[in-house]
Amino acid sequence: MSNVPPPPPGAYAAAPQPMSPSDEKMWSTLVHVGGILFQFLPALIGFLVLKDRGPFVRAHTANALNFQLTLLIAYFVGSLLTIVLVGFLILLAAWVLNIVFSIIAAVKANGGWPYEYPMTIRFVR
């Protein structure tokens, strides 16, 4: 046995490296487009993994997550209200809004501009 002391706690944890602006734009764009196909999962994963990598990607992933969680509520309410047939309109409106606003957000992110989804509840800042 050697007399070498153990490393101090947290010695191997490295701070996340900041991303280049082009990488921030790319990941922000992918998170928005991923919301069209996979609902809130890309926004949640993107926020958890990328939030400390740069202010631009943090803002876009947080906004995408807030929007997708708001849509999740709309889908839930719409599903409940399908009993009285109004729910089908809510589900259709939420689906269309998801496609339209996610495309707009992806274009803005790819251009390097900030974007905030309208009609969104702020769960994450």
Structural account:
Helix 1 (21-38) runs antiparallel to helix 2, helix 1 packs parallel to helix 3 (55-80) and helix 2 (41-50) runs antiparallel to helix 3 (55-80). It contains four helices and no strands. 64% of the residues lie in helices and 0% in strands. It has helices spanning 21-38, 41-50, 55-80, 86-111.
What are its keywords?
mainly alpha, 125 residues, elongated, single chain
Topology:
Elements: H1 21-38, H2 41-50, H3 55-80, H4 86-111
Helix pairs in contact: 1-2, 1-3, 1-4, 2-3, 3-4
Count of discrete alpha- or pi-helical segments spanning 4 or more residues:
4
Strand fraction band?
under 5%
**What is the structural class?**
mainly alpha
Shape: elongated
| Counted beta strands | 0
> Span between N and C termini?
50 Å
State the low-pLDDT regions, or none. Answer: none
| Mean pLDDT over the residues | 91
Largest sheet: none
Which range best describes the helical content: under 10%, 10-25%, 25-40%, 40-55%, 55-70% or over 70%?
55-70%
Q: Which value, in Å, is the CA radius of gyration? A: 19 Å
Spell the H/E element sequence: HHHH
